[in-house]
Write a structure and sequence with these properties.
This protein has about 375 residues and is of the alpha/beta class. The protein is built from 13 helices and 17 strands.
């Protein structure tokens, strides 16, 4: 097999793939639209599951580096009622299988484990096209091009590689998050800090939810979930932080003040995060020389699995390529068939969880967490 592997996207999935190939002696080049690793914030905490993300880290031979960035105590989980009463509280006793890390730190250890020239920053893709003999060409916005015999789209929800294999387009999933932060929470926002506890907290009700977790630096990072049409959010001017905050907080009128403080007392302007999804069982026929991983392949509304699945995709694809060095089509076919089944099963399971999370009966959610934890 030609060692001509081109990966579009330097997120967790793309970098995991590059690392797994690297430790097996197969070079790859990653093209990323961002100009540098520090171009933008990389999001908040991620729980990395022992049955998914940690398997990928093992395949990447980075377990020691991973353990060094784990945030101790953050596996605590609390479920609160809208009046602030505690319905479920699971402490972090150090034995849980989902340790929390900061996404930026996880991306850093993956990136730093690669040869210096592996990631080519500042390469935003404008289009892709099929050439002959299973090769494909990628065009960048600066006019440059690259041709490759093995192209991997790890470029997220709005993948520029996906059209080579699928006509599917993500659709609005009916819900959105509004993201807020509280800084120096223990001293400046003690009520909210106590409600959240040492790890994560969720307070769900019919069609709405407040989810928050404690990150590094005494920061509370909150995702306010609302099941509303896009037009409802479009009517809110998010450039007016005060008015937007008040409008979102009004949806939780009557809730406990320590919960609504996570919205009304935010130290940054609220940021809208609409949820989009591909069909639950999105799949495609084998197209020579190209495949997808992560959100490019199986975008779903946030469910706690996206990063884990993307990393596992990257690891499994890397292992398949290494196992079939002279037969890339067998590698891609084996990877895709397993990935289709894996992602569909996870998404279906978490659609049921979302029914509990955004339904009217919070006891179903509590019961599920009691069974799992």
């Amino acid at each position: 097999m030609s060692n001509d592997v081109t990966i579009i996207g330097a997120g967790l999935g793309g970098l995991t793939l590059a690392r797994v190939l690297h430790v097996r002696g197969i070079p790859a080049t990653v093209y990323e639209a961002e100009s540098s690793p520090e171009t933008r914030a990389q999001g908040g905490m991620l729980d990395i599951h022992d049955c998914k993300g940690q398997l990928a880290i093992e395949a990447a031979d980075l377990m020691e580096e991973f353990h060094a960035i784990v945030l101790k105590g953050r596996q605590q989980m609390r479920i609160l009622d809208r009046d602030g009463s505690v319905l479920f509280n699971k402490l972090d006793d150090g034995t849980g299988g989902r340790p929390e890390v900061m996404r930026a730190e996880l991306r850093r250890i993956l990136h730093d484990s690669l040869p210096a020239d592996t990631v080519q920053w500042g390469h935003k893709v404008s289009g892709t096209r099929t050439l002959s003999e299973g090769r494909h060409e990628v065009t960048f916005e600066d006019g440059g091009t690259v041709a490759t015999s093995l192209l991997v789209g790890a470029d997220g929800a709005w993948s520029r590689v996906r059209p080579l294999v699928s006509t599917a387009i993500p659709e609005y999933a009916g819900r959105s998050f509004v993201e807020t932060y509280l800084f120096n929470a223990d001293t400046r926002h003690p009520g909210a800090a106590q409600a959240v506890g040492g790890g994560s907290m969720m307070a769900p009700a019919g069609g709405k939810e407040i989810f928050a977790h404690r990150e590094t630096g005494d920061t509370l990072h909150t995702y306010v979930g609302l099941t509303r049409p896009r037009d409802w959010f479009a009517a809110i001017d998010f450039t007016d932080a005060r008015a937007a905050t008040a409008r979102i907080a009004a949806e939780f009128d009557g809730w406990a003040p320590e919960l609504t403080a996570l919205i009304s007392d935010c130290d940054t302007g609220p940021v809208l995060r609409p949820h989009y999804a591909l069909p639950t069982e999105h799949r495609w026929g084998r197209v020579p020389g190209v495949t997808l991983l992560g959100d490019a392949a199986h975008l779903a509304a946030p469910n706690g699995e996206g990063a884990n699945l993307a990393m596992l995709d990257g690891a499994e694809l890397g292992k398949a390529i290494a196992a079939h060095r002279d037969d890339p089509e067998t590698a891609l076919n084996e990877y895709e068939q397993a990935m289709f089944l894996r992602s569909a099963a996870v998404i279906a399971e978490h659609e049921q969880l979302n029914e509990s999370l955004f339904g009217d009966d919070v006891s179903r959610l509590v019961e599920k967490f009691q069974q799992e934890r």
